[in-house]
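Order emerges. As here.
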Amino acid sequence: MAITKRTGKSGTTYRAEVMIDRKRYSETFARRAQAQAWIVKMKEEAAAGFLDRGKPLKGLKLAEAHTMFVEDAERTGVKIGASTLSALNQWTPGRVYVASVDKAFILDYAINAKGRGLAPSTVAGHLIALRSLLINLKDYRQFDVARQLDGLNEGYRVASKRGLVGSSTKRDRRVSDDVLMTLKAVFAGQERKTDLSALMPAIIDIALAGGFRLAEIARLRWDDLDRKGRKILVRQRKHPDPRVKATRDEWVPLLRGTGIDAMAVILSQPRRPGEDRIFPVTPASVTGAFSRAVTAAGVGDVWFHDLRHECLSRLAALGHDVLQLQKVSGHRDLNSLKRYVSLRAEDVARKDAELVADRQQRDEVRPQLAVVNR
């Protein structure tokens, strides 16, 4: 029996551990008194024979745990986001057994991920997804994964100290027209064209022109397009407050300021029989295709989400104010929007020159008007 005090950025927590029948159980609490009460409760339940030790893992693989997670999410009506699904997919290949997850397993994965060039924030996302798989096994499938959760938490803590995992930082990667042309050329040059590869150039264009999230692109519908108003209704848009799980429907303008006409991209798509979606794709398939194209093109560290950043940065450089940018991005918080806009010094200098030239032109017109009015 032990209670360990831990102090981090988010505050102080107390980790309670108790050994029952040669098996360790642990839980983390905000107060020491809660940790002590939990230990007493666990001992009482064990003495009374009420302690649920869960089903043994036997030969259960992580790929099977992934399938169970998706099934349970569908059964309970829980929506899995594109980024979460992408992180979960890291645990589907191979013959890795759930029982093999421990501290050493987590550290090996984090070290190998660094060797593959993955950012600490990406590795953190993968491990958080793994935790979700384990918790799902415990809560919905009654498997005994206490040892695996302990190993994951301890491995994550050590990996964090070594800088192998961490929170994301603001990306300032700008996507040039040359890079965009190179990526689209990869899809155009593929010998075996699929429906997805044929769609990818247009999907890249609409992401850059409209600043849409990938999941939003997959939900755009013909019935929601207002040609006269040059706008489209984006359904189930992410709520501006990350603590709120609800979504909202919002009209988004279709602009031309990025150099690509968003309306023209949409109208270039055919109406497919029995399909109301403009781009009938899944976020996971687009993410995979885009990542493979980036590798084939050799254009460096480019993410599909960078196209959204690039859209907002180009619109800001064009002179759109914060309220106009928020209408495009859907952000309600200025700090969140600032993370997406990466203005270059030359953009600001060019805009300043345009404003000065415009002011000089107005100053020249005013004396002429004064003479005419006399």
Notes: The chain is about 55% helix and 10% strand. The first strand starts at residue 2 and ends at 8. The beta strands are 2-8, 11-20, 23-29, 225-226, 231-238, 247-253. The chain has four domains: 2-48, 63-161, 177-343, 349-374.
